Each structure stands twice: as C-alpha cells, then as structure tokens.
Amino acid sequence: MKNPSAFTGYEMLAIQMLFSGAAAGFIYPSFLIRSTEGAYWIPIAVWTAGALLSSWLYSRMLARLEGRKLVSAIRSSVGLVWTSVLFLPVILFLIGALIVMLRAYSEIITMTMLPTTPISFLNGMLLSSAALALAGIMPIIRAARVFFLMASLFTLALLIIGFSDVNWTLGTPWFRTNGDFLLDNRFYAGSFLWMGFAITSLIGPYTMQSARGAWRSYALALICALPMIAGYVYLPVLTFGRDLSQRLTFPFVTKMDTIYHYWIIFDNLTAIFVSVTMLYVLLIMALKLHALGDTVKTLMPKAKNGFIYLGLFIVVYAAATFLPSWRELEHVIILTVGIRLYIMFIFPLLGMAALIVAQRRGGKGRES
Amino acid sequence: MRRICASLKMVIVCSLTMIAVTGCWDSRDVDNRLMVGALGLEKSTETSLRVWFRFPVPKAIQGLSKKDFFTMSQIGFTVPDAMNKIKYKLPKALDASSTRALLLDESLAKTGINPYLEFAIRERSVPLDAVVAVVRGNMERIFTSPNPTGELAGIYTKLFFEPYAGGIPRKNKTRLWEIYAKLYNPFHANLIPLVTEGVQNSFEFTGNAIFLNGKIVGELNKDESLLFEIFTHRFHDSEVELMNRSDVRIVHNHTRIKTKLERGIPIIGLDCSLVTTLIDSSRTRKQNESQIIAELESSLNAHAKSMFEKTQREGADVFGFGNRFRNRLQPSQHGDWPEMFKSAKISYKFHIILRNTGLEFLD
C-alpha cells in the first residue's frame, strides 16, 4: 500500500529542523534583536505559540484531504478559478521567500568570504536546488536525511563553542518586557521562521492520521529547534551586549569571528558556519521550489514539469540578482509581512471552509 | 537516439560543473600575498594617522637579506585609506586577515580610538580576535627591530598576552572585538593593556589604560590591574603578589558581586575568596601565618581603594558593574551610568586562605 503521507515522522522532523537552520541563522537574529528592548525569549515564545496555532490549523485542514494533495483537493472542491485565487498569495509568498533566502545567502558570502565575486554568480547555487526540486520529493527527502545528520552535528558544535566569552549580565533584562515588540514591524517580519509547516503542507498527500502525525513531528522539531534559535539570538548578545548586537547585520557571524581557542584547529569558524548554513539553504530552497512547482503543476496540468521549474528558476534568479541592496531585501521582508500572516492563519481557515463546503455538497449529492 | 540524448545531457551537466570551478574572483595564491602580522596605529597630524605594517617573510623567500620580517608605514586619513595607499608600494597582495596584534600609539589613544576601529567589524578585514595594546614610546623602533625571541611578527605580541604562553593575569589580554563592543556599551568602559618600549626588549608591560568614550583618561598600575582581574572573573592560572616581607601566590579566587540601587545610588558589594600559597618568607623579620594573611589583606585593600578611586573619579566603569543595573534603569537612563558610577558605593571584603606554606614548615 502506498504511504498516505510524503514524509515519515523522522523525515518531517529532519526537514523542519533544516528549515529552522536555514531561516534562523542569519536574517532572523538581527530582526528580533532590533525589535525589542525587553527580554528576547518573550517574542520567541509568542511566535512559537503562533507557529503551533498555525500548524494546528493546517493539520485540521490536512485531516480532511482523505489521501489527496492539498492543491488538488481544493481544486476538485471549488474549481480552478477559486483555487487559483486562493493559491495566488501562496505562490507569491513562496517566490518571495525563495528570492529572499537566495539573495540573503549570497550576501552573507559576499560580506564574509568572497567580497568581489559577483552576486549573479553566487545566485547560481539555485541551480542545484532547482535540479533537486525537479528530481522529485524522494531525492529531497533522502538528501534531507543526510544533510540533517551532518548539519545538526556541526551546528550543535558551533553553538557549544559559541558559549566562549559569554557574559551573562549582558543578557538583562531577562524577564522584563513592555510589549514594545508588538508594535514593531521587525517582530512580524521574523514570521518567515515559523512557517515550516505551511510549506510541507503543500507537498504530498495527507490523511487524518498522517496530518496528526505530521503536526506532532512539527511540534517536536520546533521544541528541538528552540535552543538553536535562542542560541543564534542570545550568544551574540551575551558576548557583545545589546547595543552592538543591534547594529550588526549578522550577529551570529560576527560572534563566530570572535572565537579563538588554542585547541581549535580551525582558524575560521565563520567559514564553517556559512558552509553548514549552505546545506540548510540548498535543501530548503529545493523544498520550496518543489512545493511551488507542484502547486503550479496542479493549476496548469498541461504545462511540462521541466518548463515549470525552468520558469521558476529564471524568475527567482533574476529577482534575487536585480535586488539592488541589502536594505531593499529587508524592505521586501517587511513589506511581505501581510502575505505571510495571511498564509499562516487565514489560508488554512479558507482551505478548510472550501473542503467542508465540498464535503457537504458531496454528501448531499450522494443523499439525493 | 535516446543514447545520443543521454550523452548530450551528460555533456551539458559536465560543462555546468566547469562553470563552478572557473569562478574564482577572490582567489589569491598564498605566495602572492603579503600577510600582515602586526598593525600599528600612530597619530600623524590632526586629521591623519600613520599605520605601521609588519610582514613576516617565510624562510624560502628570504634570499640574501636573512631577515624574517619587513616593515612599512603609510600615512592615511583612516586605516583602510592607509591600507589602500600602501598597495602602491607593495609587489604582492596585502592580506590583513592574519593580523595577530594591533598596537595603538598612546597619543592616538588620548585623542580617541573610536573612528579607527569600525573597518574591522564592517569589512571583516582584520580578525576580531587580534590582541590590542596601547604603546608608550617609539612605535617605529618596536616595528623595525627584530623580535628578541625569534617569533614571527605578530605572533610575538600575541604570545606576550596569551594565557597559554607569556600571558599572566595582570597583562589583561584584550581583543579587538571586546574593545569595539564596549565602545557601544554605556555600562562598560574599556581597559586596554599599556606596554612601554623596552630597553632590552621590544616592549614591556607597565599597566592598563582606562578608557572613557574611546579616550585614555587614566591608568591602573600592575598591582591595581591584578585586583581588576580578581574582581572581574578574568583571573586565570596563578599570579604572584609581592609584599614587603613575604611573597604569596594566588592560585584560585572567586568573587561574588551583589548590587542594588538605593535612591538612585548604585550599591556594589564584592565578596572575594582567595586561595594562596606561600612561596617566600622574609628571613629578616619572621612572620607567622596570620600575619602574612593580614599583610596580604591590607595590601589588597590598598590596591583596591586606589583602583576604585581612579576609575570612579573618571566615571569609567571598566569592571562592567553597570551591566547588572541595566535591568533597573529605563533605556533613557542608560547614558547616565558613567555619572552614576562616580557616586556608587563600592565595598569589598577579602577571605584569604593560606593553603600551604610550601615544602618547608613556617615556624
């Protein structure tokens, strides 16, 4: 019998951990540190609750799929036009997320290791992700299992080494907050970190059991990823203090630059961090491209797979290359907050409504 | 036909991988680079500075000169400007990414170091773990004379401060990132080691320079520096304290810091436990154990008193006590900390244990 879900529990855990690694390490800490004067763990906890709520809404929606894929189930319920309207923001979000992730990673390489290498060349790394996405979900999952083992070990080691030169008094206030982050758009801009479940929901068929299992794996992955996310945010703050950390583009990269121990044979921990992050980023870009390609394919069944991925590659590559600067990239992340909040909380409700309507209609049809 | 198609695909994939190996915009062979070992910043005129570069020369290319380093200097408005201009004189690519030490001239440090360090963080050209020291004396002599112990340029200064080599607690190893972070932290002022041009040697340690807002405002002597290390948990290994009649070694210490804010005045209490051993007792005037401990305590109290007087007079919280008050102050009050530190009530208590008196009984 065919597996009713694209992922097993462990695979879901691996993919979600990789997602956190790809999203939390370089853009997120700077957004979070600049969003509040109070304790940093409070906005992280608020978003964790938000992520659990959003993924629960998704799992309720997926539970109604009865072994079908999300896009095709909604398409058969409300028709092609309404499905396209419903999924247009999702497609835009995924394209935007890909552009941001690709360009942000190219920028991190430019700022840390290869200052004169053209962005257009560095963006070419999308090619391998596109090839992986085109190959299908199974190669992505297999790659995820390998990358997860390698990358999580390195990340754990880097986080442990990151505890050198930590001054705990720099982390204060530990418990005070005035809720200022709720009025700061950078707090909402950080929402991209908490959307791993939304992306995997678009891939593969789900049943009631597999949706529940997927949500449990996601919740476990989130709990496992929290120390990593907290480490990326707190380790630079406990080293440099809040005032300098707020001014740093990649606080954790600069933190890695400061580490020196007689017994560490690697001179450049930043290069190790950036290389490990590449594993995360390559895989998550492949996953996003695959989710995007799958959605487009269902909406345009006649289009050839190869052409869909080629088109997506060209759009993402071109947009990521023509973004003029890092500031623009930050603006893109802030401007697309609304679309992300829609996908996290409103889209699953609308999807669920569409599926319920179709179920009722189907039930009535059968009765009459 | 299918076979031809498959081979065509293979050829395309192989050509794509070739694109990846050609992309080497930032590559420079190691033998085409001149790696900076140590950098020195010196005031040249009001608006410009002279940057000293010391490059190690590998044995293979020393040739007839037999010198394992060469030194150059360049005047510029900023450090990157000088680095840019020195390229006019160099046959190979300048590579500052291996810089081990950054020496700041005392006159430059007196006018302010803030404008000269930003490049290291922003451009990541100089490693953030490079050790930093303030130099009193002739920078040119330090940069042009050979290292007495034969180490490569930069390595000598690094070893001078590193705890695993010649570093002792009083030397207060300070790295570039620490200085830069404290320039932005209103609760923590910089304390940078001060070395003086030596007669027999390149330089010798003379104390620590107190900085406020990036400028030197005072100086801690060697004994006060020891107290600084003890109170700030930076003390490592062991350190010898010389007294009038006997010498003891401090082998372990633990300091508990308690803070509170009373009617706007910071109250800071330090409770310090020291474990010591005796290394030499005076033969001229015999002392028993309790007398040695009492003498050590009074000596530590005297050093602590003068250290806090110097730092509080200037409002320079080199200890970072202010970080403990961040929670109790509103963000708008953070900038007031130097003034608050001036009126802080600091008390300290020492608990000294003389663990043993060595391999000879003390009568």
Automatic annotation (TrEMBL), chain A:
One of its GO terms (cellular component) is membrane. It comes from the Bacteria. The chain crosses the membrane at residues 12-33, 39-58, 79-101, 121-141, 146-166, 186-206, 218-240, 260-287, 307-326, 332-358. Keywords: Germination, Membrane, Transmembrane, Transmembrane helix, Transport. Pfam families: Spore_permease (PF03845). PANTHER family: SPORE GERMINATION PROTEIN A2. This is Uncharacterized protein. It comes from Cohnella endophytica.
From TrEMBL, chain B:
InterPro entries: GerAC_N, Spore_GerAC-like, Spore_GerAC-like_C, Spore_GerAC_C_sf. It is a lipid-anchor. One of its GO terms (biological process) is spore germination. Residues 26-196 form the Spore germination protein N-terminal domain. Residues 1-20 form the signal peptide. The keyword ATP-binding does not apply. This is Ger(X)C family spore germination protein. It comes from Cohnella endophytica.
